[in-house]
Amino acid sequence: MNRILSKERLAPEVYRMVVAAPLIAAERRPGQFVILQVDDDFGERIPLTIADGDPAAGTITLIFQTVGKTTHRLAELGEGDRITHLVGPLGQPTHLACFGSVVCVGGGIGVAPLYPIVQGLRAAGNRLTVILGARTRELLILQEELAALADELIICTDDGSAGRKALVTAPLGEICARTPPPDQVVAIGPAIMMKCCAETTRPFKIPTVVSLNTIMIDGTGMCGGCRVTVGHQTRFVCVDGPEFDGHAVDFDNLLQRSRAYKRKEDRDHEQCHLDAALEAKS
Question: Is the whole model's pTM more than 0.85, yes or no?
Answer without folding.
Answer: yes
